[in-house]
Amino acid sequence: MRLTTLFSIPRVLRHSDAVGADLPPDDAVVLDAPDPSLRAALAAASSGDHTPAAELLAGTREHAQWERRDTCVSRLARASLHHPGWLESWLEESPEDPDAVLVKADQYVYQAWQIRTGARARHVEADQFRAFHAVLRDSVPVISTAAELNPDDPVPWRIALTQARGIQAPREVFDGYLSEANARDPHHEGCHVQALQYLCAKWYGSHEEMFAFAERAAEQAPPGSRLHALPLQAVVEYLIADEETSGPGPYTARTEAAVTRAQALSDSYAPGDREAAGFRNHLALVLWSLSRYEEALDAFRSIGVHATTFPWTYFGEAREEFLEARSDTRVELAMKIPFFRASPGPPASGTPDWERELAPRSLAIASTGPTEVAQAALICGHSLRTAPAGSHHTYVEIVPDPVRGKRAALLPEDPLTSAADNFTTAEDWPALVLHRTPERSSFTLVHRGRKVTDHAWETAAPATDHAEATRTAAALARSYGLSDPRPLAHILRATGDPARHQRELVAALGLPPLPSGYGGEQEILAELPGARVLARRGFLAGMRDTMTTKDGVHPETPPQDEPHPVRWWVLRTAALLFFTAAAVYAWWTPDIGWFRSTVSSVLSLYFAAKLIRALRRRPVSSSPPPAAS
Length: 629
Fold this sequence. Notes:
The chain is an alpha+beta fold. About 55% of the residues lie in helices and about 10% in strands. The protein has 27 helices and 9 strands. The chain has helices at about 5-15, 35-45, 50-60, 65-80, 85-95, 100-115, 125-150, 155-165, 170-185, 190-200, 205-220, 230-240, 250-265, 275-290, 295-305, 310, 320-335, 355, 370-375, 405-410, 415-425, 465-480, 485-490, 500-510, 540-550, 565-590, 595-615, and strands spanning about 30, 305, 360-365, 385-390, 395-400, 430-435, 440-445, 450-460, 530-535. A hairpin with a 3-residue loop joins β6 and β7. It is globular. This is DUF4034 domain-containing protein. It comes from [Kitasatospora] papulosa.
């Protein structure tokens, strides 16, 4: 660790909570969240019903909504790989339906890329390449049929451009496909994105050709078109072309122009707009890569909860990479703020909608009684509210503190998970921490102070891999003493209704049902019989109570000090300044002995501790702090 980094840690601890405090919590972020009508079509398809999908695509065709049609076809094609049957029944019912044939054509392409994977060519096996090319060849007649059934549609030509890239089609074939796409919609984003991929250096073009194509498309695009951000995608492709590339190098000027153009386009969309999420995620990545952290934080604010698979999937699991980059941006900005400067406040635009609607609702179910939880939670670093859940379990939720504790600031996890990590340490009973947002439900199983396993359901996400679901189900079964993990694995692989799957898992584990109101308000346990607040304690006070309290009784909240008069503050501040100056002078002057130097230092520390303690003594509130203005 560099010395400068070590010295910046106090700044991070002081300011990191305030920097980006208006960003959505991690659990509220959803990858590629669909709009309501597409969500309904995906949910119905997962249960075998193709009717909503047919109605949705028919509407996009009749109204020539080609961009929306492209998005819907892509999502439905991916869903058909994970939930087979509904597309086949649709084609059997209507073999000449241009919408069904179009989804089938895109399904071929997605299936081929699923076989190949997104790895670089040198990491793909020969057998994978053979299967990849075979599936792409099989897609040719289906793509042709889709284009013939709806001649005005540019989406079949977007699929054809993707297929041409995969089979290494020569340039004249690519140019022909692109010309056909432009004849139908000269500003179709999906077709231009696929063309840019063909022209980038990792496929069949070069950096220069890629940038020239993207800049020409942006210059010709009408106002408000997302093609104005196409040069930004070229910047991303250049940055990832060489793993050792530290910056744009010879393309610095073009990078600056692409960023400026994309920022202007972002300003024309409302914050959190789902339609702008794609290029805003590219913008956040580029600004973060260029260490322009203040602008990157603004980009993350504009994204809100709408993370996208691209470009983050280039670096690993997309959602995790998005959250890591966002967190790193906050840390880097906190490191630059002087320690004694006031922490920055949120923007003056007001409290964003996600704070009310999209913030995760959290609840833990501990497999022991409230008394044991109270004793174990003495030094967890958070204020908690507990309520009995039957005779052998306890509901636990976080009570927001007006001032966050130092230990809480050091923990990167959400408050309830970090508290469960603490209060299950050295205990035989586990705790299941549940989170829920409108699009996502998840759980984390914590036992003996460590995370055993976790899982998340998302509305439009595909089913979890069978092997992964089996491992998670086995871990749950071991922790809760179940002999057969197969019902748990079935629930983990379910799709379409995250809240229902979460409830089903809780019931399958033999845990008490989720209390009414969970998923609505942030705090729901106050009205339950036997509910009580376990106030946060300092580390030393918590250790003292742990060693002296008997029978697991959580001591009452320490009485709050009466407000000190102004005279008290003036005298102790003056004493602190006097003894600090005396200590500095004593240690600096060789004629003064070590005894008087030590006494001055001890008195200086004593008055500093008194003032700090007086500043920190505040009552604990059971309601969240007022929303930022």
